[in-house]
Specification:
6 helices; about 250 residues; Aspartate Aminotransferase, domain 2; about 15% strand; Aspartate Aminotransferase, domain 1; alpha/beta; 8 strands; 4-stranded antiparallel β-sheet; globular; 4-stranded mixed β-sheet
Length: about 250
Amino acid sequence: QAGFEPLVQGFIRVPYKDIEAIRKIAEHDHTVVAVMLEMIQGEGGVNVADETFQRELRALCDDKGWLMMCDEVQCGMGRTGKWYGWQHAGTKPDVMTLAKGLASGVPIGACVTSGKATGLFGPGNHGSTFGGNPLACAAGLATFDTIVEDRLMDNAVAIGDQIRKGMAEALVGVAGVVDIRGRGLMIGIELDRPCGVLMARAAEQGLLLSVTAERVIRLLPALTFTADEARTLVAMLAPMVRDFLANG
């Protein structure tokens, strides 16, 4: 949020995956109309919402008449091994946002509704300069077709598992490695200290990664990533992490 103040008013923020905090708000605040979250936080540090939490949240929203809104901009479009992150728990949101991978790099975004949210927006309610342009929509349709035809969701599961396993084996027993987590090709390696310097060091060696939440190395490989590329990634990144933790 830093640098983006003043923030939009009217939102109540709670700790991630804390269903009891949401229940307490439900007891005392009757102005709430929806809950919005990422099933896997991107900028927040590749934190995965467990399936029990997701189901309990869906039930609470149903009980209170709230909309459940899922931000799938980063974890959607097959990245986790399913089309959308919420599918792993068998839940279904009322509103879903998409972008990034929706058109394989061509700028596009979408807001998808179902259930009681259907029809709340009509033509002309919310305009966009480039909304619905033919090029972006054609790229989006081609992306859907390619993910299905090339079995890229299966690939995301297999290669993601390979990378996490490879990094875990290469970093076993290394002091300073807090966690290696994620789902499919959305991977976070949490260290016990800020590690932003690793972005530049990795780039110098031809490896592109990001650091989010100060201490989490975030890996978002392309859905077309191969097993050989995964082995190369582990071979480059693991020694870099070990050196950073040993020498700074």
